[in-house]
Amino acid sequence: xxxxxxxxxxxxxxxxxxxxxxxxxxxxxxxxxxxxxxxxxxxxxxxxxxxxxxxxxxxxxxxxxxxxxxxxxxxxxxxxxxxxxxxxxxxxxxxxxxxxxxxxxxxxxxxxxxxxxxxxxxxxxxxxxxxxxxxxxxxxxxxxxxxxxxxxxxxxxxxxxxxxxxxxxxxxxxxxxxxxxxxxxxxxxxxxxxxxxxxxxxxxxxxxxxxxxxxxxxxxxxxxxxxxxxxxxxxxxxxxxxxxxxxxxxxxxxxxxxxxxxxxxxxxxxxxxxxxxxxxxxxxxxxxxxxxxxxxxxxxxxxxxxxxxxxxxxxxxxxxxxxxxxxxxxxxxxxxxxxxxxxxxxxxxxxxxxxxxxxxxxxxxxxxxxxxxxxxxxxxxxxxxxxxxxxxxxxxxxxxxxxxxxxxxxx
Length: 411
Fold this sequence. Notes:
Number of domains: 2
CATH architecture of the largest domain: Alpha-Beta Complex
Distance between the termini: 36 Å
CATH topology of the largest domain: Creatine Amidinohydrolase
Number of helices: 10
Helix content: 25-40%
Order of helices and strands: HEHEEHEHEHEHHHEEEEHHEEEEEE
Low-confidence stretches: 1-11
Strand content: 15-25%
Radius of gyration: 22 Å
Shape: globular
Mean pLDDT: 94
Structural class: alpha/beta
CATH class of the largest domain: Alpha Beta
């Protein structure tokens, strides 16, 4: 395992490797076009992360287009689409919908394709989409009708599996962007840990960790958008972190508590999924035993990560340690999942799950999150971000990763 994160400088520029992979996918699937509207897929295809969700990316074999609202044009030009086409999703002239307003721009691109029976890959199935703004537009059922109206008798084919595979294998530039998002999270964790103490509410504690994320742009001028989410769950509430979501409450942190901090930071659409669990004051014998087991499981999982190994084997490496320590039933979720174009998506490849059919491949980025939860007592989860390299796991979150670093003063 490499000890340090990727130091490649992240900059918004043309990702030639990503463009090549998109073109190869078009050729292999015999598609005349790949059309996507989910922001994470627009980002994948064009390097631009849409704000409100009405943008559309269209990849042709020799050219890429992105159709965006007029007020997103300058942001979109920082991507690598060959042409940025603008439209007005709404106006004071009449009440309309984004789907209706998008039709003419789509038709302008459709003229580049064969007049009849063109084959188009598009998003079809349900998915999980990261939040790019306070409210997001999703075209949903309008997609098929829009494509039929814009293109002449198209043959529409689901591109979901192809897109999932494309998102799972990151380019060097994309890994560098994710590493930058991890660096932002590192600053947030170190800042918050210095101020975390008994007497704070979970809400107040979470705010200490989140504040550095919300002001990150002042120190990273090359970024356009950076921020994230942080939750704090303490004492018996930390046992509830095994659920589908985290929630900070008004409970006051007490000396002796386990304090679980979960963070999803992002930079320009590339996400992280990171957790650290602190002991406020000297830990008792029980929590010490749990933490030792979680760290042993973490080491086993990281050591198991090499290209070609099954994702289920990585899950088993962590799970076997916790079973041997007597905590098997208390490890209530998978060991990890893909992270990068999404933050929390259990179906993002690779799935480190007991029943996973996935294989670890070089370029995959994902979390490793062994954990133990005891209802009514507390929980410890340690969630790192890693990238799979030719030789093993590259740790993208090399901070607060020794047990003694997670023990804080009680007052």
